[in-house]
Amino acid sequence: MNTKTTIQIRRAVITDLDAMCDLSDQINAQHHAAAPKIFVQKTNRELDRQFWHGTFENPAACALLACDGEQVLGFITMSWNENTTIPFLYRRRICRIGTIVVSDAHQKRGIGKLLMDGATNWAREHDAVEIRLEVFDFNRNAMDFYTAQGYGVQSHIMSKSLE
């Protein structure tokens, strides 16, 4: 008997907030372990809900979910913006990936690629000419994943602690 599941990518809705917060807790814990001076150890659930809720209120933003039936396996957030103020930059619509996370139990199954493909489609539907994202230097697995998806380094964000 074939028990193969089909992963569906769909737009998130308000009732998905708890599932998004659960996955956000997972990725936040991973980021806190790698960069405890940047990421808090545990976040306030209500503040998380408010943060992710903002995705639903912004007409230039979207959250997509990867689902197996009713089970949420991952999500991606993105938004677009267009330069209208900096005179030495072209006016181009850019899609920015905010967060992408796949549950630990479902990694290495192509779900991240499906989410990135969904984000690419959304960006094209909104006339974006480019997709950008930021990844922390400690997250080598993510960098390898993005490179495999065709992303390359465009700039570097550098920091210096003053503490």
Automatic annotation (TrEMBL):
Q: What SUPFAM superfamilies would the database entry show?
A: Acyl-CoA N-acyltransferases (Nat) (SSF55729)
Instruction: Respond yes or no to whether keyword Glycoprotein is given for this record.
Output: no
Q: Which GO terms describe its cellular component?
A: ribosome
**Keywords from the named record:** Acyltransferase, Ribonucleoprotein, Ribosomal protein, Transferase
The residue ranges of the N-acetyltransferase domain are 7-163
Write down a Pfam family by its short name.
Acetyltransf_1
Keyword Mitochondrion listed: no
Annotated GO MF terms: acyltransferase activity, transferring groups other than amino-acyl groups
- Annotated membrane-spanning segments are none
Q: What is this protein called?
A: Ribosomal protein S18 acetylase RimI-like enzyme
Organism from which the protein derives: Undibacterium pigrum
